[in-house]
Amino acid sequence: MTTIRDVAKRAGVAVSTVSKVINHYPNISEDTIRRVTEAIDELQFVPNAIASSLSSKQSGRIALILNPNTQTQAIDEITMRYMTGAVTRARELRMELLPVFFSMLEEKSVEEVETFLHSQGVGGLIICGMSKDDYVLQRLVAREHFKVVLVDVPISNASTSYVSVDQRAAQADVARKTILENQGPSKDVLYISGKQNGYVSEDRLQGMLDLARELEFNLSVHSGEFSEKKAREITLKYGEVNDIIVCASDLMAIGAMRALMDLDIFHPVCGFDGITLMGYAGKQMNTVRQNFHDIAAEAVDEVARLIGGEQGRAVIMPHELVRLEYMDIIV
Amino acid sequence: MTTIRDVAKRAGVAVSTVSKVINHYPNISEDTIRRVTEAIDELQFVPNAIASSLSSKQSGRIALILNPNTQTQAIDEITMRYMTGAVTRARELRMELLPVFFSMLEEKSVEEVETFLHSQGVGGLIICGMSKDDYVLQRLVAREHFKVVLVDVPISNASTSYVSVDQRAAQADVARKTILENQGPSKDVLYISGKQNGYVSEDRLQGMLDLARELEFNLSVHSGEFSEKKAREITLKYGEVNDIIVCASDLMAIGAMRALMDLDIFHPVCGFDGITLMGYAGKQMNTVRQNFHDIAAEAVDEVARLIGGEQGRAVIMPHELVRLEYMDIIV
DNA sequence: CTGTTAGCGCGTTCAG
DNA sequence: CTGAACGCGCTAACAG
Predict the structure, then answer these.
(1) Rounded CA gap, B132 and B195, in Å?
(2) CATH code (residue B16)
(3) Nearest 5°: phi and psi at B60?
(4) Structural domain of residue B21, as residue ranges?
């Protein structure tokens, strides 16, 4: 293993000089920089991340806290996009990402979680999919002992940022598009919402209420709890008496669409998320595509900014409307 | 942050003694162990993993090398199962898992990859989804500079183990079951195989050849390259003239089944993997359920064994036959 | 059985 | 602008 000392010797300078070159310190002569850089290249030197973070106490280590739902693979796709986006960007920024799953935090106190994170040299957190019921996580961000970036949860303070698409606008957009495309007797729309008391659920519901006012249609709302089965049941019950079904997630949209097919009736259905599974519903459907990969990358950037001393803030990511069907998604 | 020194002071012993207690060294009196343990509890001390691995040079850090296919979410489910299984087990063993994606290794030489891994203090690797074309990875394991555990790739030597289900037997099992369940005039079976020159593909094909000999049926083989679309095309062409379609993956089974539905004919189809998506094919299908979560956990155990100095070996995991359909998989 | 001491590889003062 | 010296938190000999 080649160390910083080898590089120093090779370049004929002191170790500290090499360190400064690596970390882009000011006040180093062009000539020294060149010599050191050459030595680094020749020796294929890569700084030891372990030693580096021990010494600097400022480990570019961040924990990516995920809630992989083992129930449905639809969530796997989203979680995986978060992972790849975050891991890739982290490497570009020469930071280290530590995946942590909700299940590993269960039955732990906030203090325990904090000491664990500290013992791992973690300075920042990215939390995906936190709900209002996740008590320890809630307290974790409230205590502000870590720099944290929340994904899809609109909370920000001095050391907390969040990144998310504009849920409210996006929900209205996709529903509007779907309704306008089907200018029939579309007076009654059924909205299958997410979880009561959930962050995104409430925003999306607001979007629907906005739209109902804008387009003046009858809106009936039922909570599908992000469950495909639940959405199916709701559609079996209320699908027939409505003209259009708007769902707060793709999974529920699939459940709704399949229920309609079982009933042998057709109504337009739209979803939210833009997952591949949407192609397996049997019919074309509109949905909101969230770019989870980019969202996670942005979250990494943001946590880096926070660690760099900047204030927390809100980062709104763009979304796009798409229409998915089987032949488009298979490869 | 409470350090080992604080604990030592609190317990009235030397730091090294605390270290020995933590790492379960022999020759420590019951009494000191008790005192140290108490101090640790009272101070809620958790050893700093960074410092520990810097000092011991023997970081329990392992890289989990994955190939997340951004094309289809079916693969996301599998990749995610690998992740959760490995990460969870790693934490139990107090090891650290570093997720690495194939994309991050592209355009890097073996040497570069090795120095990168070394700089990260990585001692062991778990590689999932390596193919015969992944040149750098191939060389990486051949050089034996790391302890590596291969998933689904039957290579083992002094410092390399592999863990996998018995692909050959499993393929024969699921096909046999499917054929025997449909004791009609099932003389002709179409096998849609995986990638030519692939590790598991070859094993699974062998399983089919075994079975063709055993049950004496006509077997025609076409390569679907693990592509849903390809399987669809093959089925559109040859589906009608065969009685049963056996596929080397669930994804292809879905493609085949949907093709049959488009043709408006029915033949039994079976797949391989046991992914949730299988429920969206439209009909019930047999498949082999591989427990990816446990496989990954086993891989972590195995890499720990290798690091502990044991020889490489083959670990065969159990598989089970299941029949999946929509109502079973939705939640 | 326990304590002392010297590093692990690097970042960071602070003189020069 | 450079380099010597110290320390991050811990483990590993070696003394005692």
Answers:
(1) 10
(2) 1.10.260.40
(3) -75, 50
(4) 1-45
pLDDT score, position B184: 67
pLDDT in tens, A167-199: 999 999 999 999 999 876 568 999 999 998 889
Residue A62, in any domain of the structure: no
Q: Which of B16, B11, B7 is nearest to B35 (CA)?
A: B11
Pick the closest to residue A179 from A73, A107, A63, A267 (CA basis).
A267
Q: Which of A71, A101, A276 sits opposite B72 (nearest CB)?
A: A276
Q: How many DSSP H helices and E strands does chain A contain?
A: 14, 12
Q: CA-CA distance, B101 to A87, in Å (whole number)? A: 8
pLDDT tens across A162-172, in order? Answer: 999 999 999 99
In 3-state terms, what secondary structure has residue A115? helix
Give strand D nucleotides closer than 7 A to any protein Cβ.
1-5, 7-13
**Prediction pTM value:** 0.92
Containing A255, the helix (H) or strand (E) segment is helix A250-263
Give chain B positions within 8 Å (CB) of A258: 326
Which nucleotides of strand C lie within 7 A of protein CB? 1-5, 7-13
Separation of alpha carbons A149 and A299, rounded Å: 6
**Across chain B, which distance is largest between two alpha carbons, in Å?**
83
Report the CATH number that the domain containing residue A184 is assigned in CATH: 3.40.50.2300
The verdict on residue B79 lying in a domain is no
Instruction: Provide the token pair at B112.
Output: 């570069």
A306 lies in some domain: no
Between CA B12 and CA B39 the distance in angstroms is 9
End-to-end CA distance of chain B: 44
Residues 172-231 (A) with a CB less than 8 A from some CB of B = 227-229
DSSP state at residue A254: H
Q: Could you tell me if residue B203 is inside a domain? A: yes
Question: What confidence tier does A73 reach under pLDDT thresholds 50, 70, 90?
Answer: low
Contact A232 B83 (CB under 8 A): no
Tally of helices (H runs) and strands (E runs) in chain B: 14, 12
How far CA B219 is from CA of A19, A302, B167, B187, B325, in Å, comes to 65, 56, 18, 9, 26
Query: Pairing relation of β-strands B244-247 and B285-290?
Result: unpaired
**Ramachandran angles phi, psi of A253, nearest 5°:** -60, -40
Burial category of A308 from C-beta neighbours within 10 Å (exposed 0-12, middle 13-18, buried 19 and up): exposed
A57 Cβ under 8 Å from any chain B Cβ: no
Average pLDDT over residues A294-309: 94
Work out how many domains chain A is built from and give that number.
Answer: 2
CB B171 within 8 A of CB B272: yes
Interface A-B: count of C-beta contacts within 8 A: 143
**Cα–Cα distance, A286 to A86 (Å, whole number):** 27
Gap between the Cα atoms of A173 and B125, Å rounded: 46
- Backbone phi and psi for residue B321, each to the nearest 5 degrees, phi listed first: -95, 130
Is the Cβ–Cβ distance between B324 and B284 less than 8 Å? yes
- Residue B91: C-alpha distances to residues A53, B49, B62, B98 (Å): 21, 12, 11, 12
Report DSSP state, residue B202: H
Average pLDDT rounded to a whole number, residues B251-257: 96
| Contact flag, residue B24 CB and nucleic strand C, below 7 A | no
DSSP per residue over B100-165, as a string? Answer: EEHHHHTT--HHHHHHHHHHTT--EEEEES--TT-HHHHHHHHHTSSEEEEES----BTTEEEEEE
List the strands of the sheet with A124-128, edge to edge: A96-101, A61-66, A124-128, A147-151, A160-165, A314-317
Q: In the beta sheet, which residues pair with residue B127?
A: B65, B150
Instruction: Verify whether the Cβ–Cβ distance A49 to B119 is below 8 Å.
Output: yes
